[in-house]
What does this fold into?
Amino acid sequence: MPELPEVETVRRMLAEHALGRAIAEIRLSGKKLREPIPRGLAARVRGRSIEKARRHGKYLMLDLSGGVTLLSHLGMSGRWLFYPGDPDGTLIHVHVKFTFADGSKLWFQDPRRFGLLRAVDTTKLKDDPALSLLGPDPLASPLDGEFFASRAKGLKVAVKNFLLDQNRVAGIGNIYASEILHRAGVDPRRPARAVPKEAWDRIAKETALVLGEAVARMGTTFSAYRTLWNEPGLYGDQLLVYDRAGEACRRCGTLIRRIVQGQRSTFFCPHCQSRARSKTAAV
DNA sequence: ATCCTATCCTGTAGGC
DNA sequence: TGCCTACAGGATAGGA
It folds into this structure.
């Protein structure tokens, strides 16, 4: 569910509302997420306050006082929810409950349990296996066509799957990959090595634009994603192809197609994203 | 190294 | 109403 814009939305909200708060109490559900949450995590973070909220790709990092960082990933269905007072109603699938010294609360809810939560030494964060291999974050360091073209050299993998590979670029997921390729006019099935330089230029440009616009609208709520306030993101209105199979392309009227790549849905316009439009490359 | 598949888990939507 | 299948924003291990 959450890709870069959704995680960035939550990061910004945490930076605005959670900084300086001291963790007074921690409760864990005991259920395993992507990996078991270590029993010792509670003792490791208790009493520390949140000093900074950072993000790389889809990973969120909360730096705590005393050199400990909470590293989290929302997986498919994870949510960080903040409550100034008491939560209204009963929530299920809440696996982590932080209560701050002032009584406010920060909960991690994750029905499918593909999420991740680790406490690591801040100085060793860079070496954490979850982060060490990640490609650059396209918001932190804007990427150009040259970057993409050089990383794609010789790769047979389809350009859609290339964009999803977090070790090449960090933060693009299934929704935005389809949106970026549509706006760049590139056929998602093309081998990365066969994408011409001028098409990579457009992909680079649209990556920054799409992700930026999505952040401005607090992300896309397709189903599960919610902001820190449990509200949906608004970028769904802007989607040009994702989940629009059989509907008319907003640019040319051709029916949007759904195909499966790497066991995941891809949506594209066969006309706007044809080979002719992205220019023929050598190879 | 690159690539492809299966797998982890629960909820929901749609067909019958 | 229930039952069944397919699918869902992700990442990773393991084999070719």
Notes: The longest strand of chain A covers residues 50-56. Helices of chain A lie at 4-17, 41-45, 129-132, 145-152, 159-164, 174-184, 197-216, 275-278.
